[in-house]
Design brief:
Strand content: 15-25%
Strand order of the largest sheet: 5-6-2-1-3-4-7
Number of helices: 12
Helix content: 40-55%
Shape: globular
Radius of gyration: 21 Å
Largest sheet: 7 strands, mixed
Length: 388
């Protein structure tokens, strides 16, 4: 089924590419595009079968995201981030899943995972207050997954949670005006003293230990691989797609270009340009191969009922951040060698360059910190982090 969705999104590519500039200029993905993505099945790829989902191989999901992102990275970013949330909701209680999907399996969720919310214990749950930034595609969603800290009697945080909040309990502040990923409309979410019942809360510690309540009702192996791997790879996949799309645009445009300087001649015959193409293609290929390998190994461990070793968790994060780094290096090289014409706003190479750099600053792409974690593990030191 995953391959079928990949083919469906391939069919959307011409239209998505035609709308890419409109999306960038308007600062949001057109409603028509979101509808087409829903109809393609990409948002149901990681959704549980019990709620109409496909429970597809996540490697196929990331492939679909890269296809969309190559045509329009803002659209691919939404496909990835909104598409990974059904997987996360599957880790919540069955009651929470039923509330979201019982009446409409196509219901979308956005997120803002930074633990800036404050949860105060209340009868039957918690009271939530907070102001979150960077909730991509929140205007298309009817629920939000938000990070929050439980505050104890002394006013100090005692636990880190992710909470599920309906659209009726928060407001969206339109603040998104940025240089890259402009079409993601990653606006702010504000909650003021909303009640969150206990069944709509999941402890991040339990999640990291692969022991969330949702695994009681969703026993498939897809829901027994780490959040740190599934979500962070969903952040890297659109950046890889942008680099791949920029590469294809570069080949198409530069193949026919004739130099007006540096001795003239066809650009395609310049050995330095040929080397640049080889380096960029190799970096993107290497990143895709490594990330796909790691996700496949994680799923194989879960399918066989084996514990997932810390070494594999750390390797997955290592290769995920390096994947983003390689993608940015590839598009940087292409942007530089494309010459002055790559500076013109609206051309695909320029847009891919902006979008890839914008995606690279996401906290999941904190390269140095993540590589340091891998190094600690390689030296046999203890690694404690929610994103591993």
């Amino acid at each position: 089924m995953g391959n079928t969705v990949v083919e469906a999104v391939r069919g959307l590519v011409p239209a998505l590419a035609d709308r890419a500039q409109e999306t960038d200029t308007a600062g949001r993905v057109p409603d028509k595009t979101v509808r087409e993505l829903i109809d393609s099945g990409v948002f149901r790829m990681l959704q549980p079968r019990r709620h109409g989902g496909l429970e597809a191989d996540p490697v196929d999901f990331y492939a679909a995201v890269r296809v969309v992102s190559a045509a329009c990275c803002s659209t691919g970013w939404l496909a990835s981030v909104l598409g990974v949330h059904p997987w996360h909701l599957a880790l919540f209680s069955g009651q929470a899943q039923d509330e979201v999907w019982r009446s409409d399996p196509d219901t979308l969720l956005s997120s803002a995972y930074a633990p800036v919310g404050r949860l105060t214990p209340a009868d039957g749950g918690y009271q939530l207050t907070g102001h979150w930034s960077f909730s991509s595609g929140c205007e298309y969603a009817r629920w939000a997954l938000l990070g929050a800290l439980v505050v104890g009697d002394q006013g100090r945080p005692v636990d880190f949670m992710t909470v599920l909040v309906p659209r009726t309990d928060y407001r969206i502040e339109q603040v998104w005006d940025v240089v890259g990923l402009r079409g993601t409309a990653s606006n702010d979410i504000v909650v003021d003293k909303a009640f969150v019942p206990a069944h709509r809360v999941i402890r991040n510690y339990e999640q990291a230990q692969l022991s969330g309540p949702g695994q009681q009702v969703n026993p498939g192996p897809l829901y027994r691989i780490p959040f740190a791997a599934v979500f962070t790879t969903a952040v890297t996949a659109p950046v890889l797609g942008a680099a791949a799309g920029g590469y294809e645009s570069y080949l198409s445009v530069m193949n026919e270009r004739v130099r007006l300087s540096l001795g003239g001649g066809r650009f395609a015959e310049d050995p330095y340009a040929q080397v640049a193409i080889a380096r960029a293609a190799s970096d993107v290929d290497a990143a895709i191969l490594q990330t796909d390998r790691n996700i496949a190994e994680l799923l194989a461990h879960a399918s066989d009922g084996r514990d997932i070793p810390m070494e594999l968790r750390l390797r997955t994060r290592r290769d995920q951040v390096r994947g983003t780094e390689r993608a940015v290096a590839a598009i940087d090289l292409l942007f530089k060698t494309a010459g002055g014409n790559s500076l013109r706003r609206g051309n695909p190479i320029e847009r891919a360059w902006r979008d890839a750099h914008a995606g690279s600053v996401h906290v999941a792409n904190d390269t140095e910190r993540t590589l340091a974690m891998y190094g600690r593990g390689a030296f046999g030191l203890t690694v404690e982090d929610n994103l591993v």
